[in-house]
Amino acid sequence: MRFTVYSKPGCPYCEKCIAILEHHDFEMTVYTIDVDFNKEQFYQEFGEGSTFPQIVMDDQRLGGCSDTIKYLQENNICCNV
Length: 81
Known about the structure:
Elements: E1 2-7, H1 12-23, E2 27-32, H2 39-46, E3 54-57, E4 60-63, H3 65-74
Parallel strand pairs: 1-2
Antiparallel strand pairs: 1-3, 3-4
């Protein structure tokens, strides 16, 4: 199971998701806006108006912070997040 996090500096939701994934030792790659991609590329990938973070597990888009936590809990991928 591999996670990709599309993040923005200073975003508390990005930091929370990254901390949860790190805590559970998941394989993870973090991409940061204006370093690894720009706003246009982000919207092209996730849709106009998408917020940060956007999390992808393997090839499945999980969504933002709340959606990711909900998915992890409902699928018993990790507990106590």
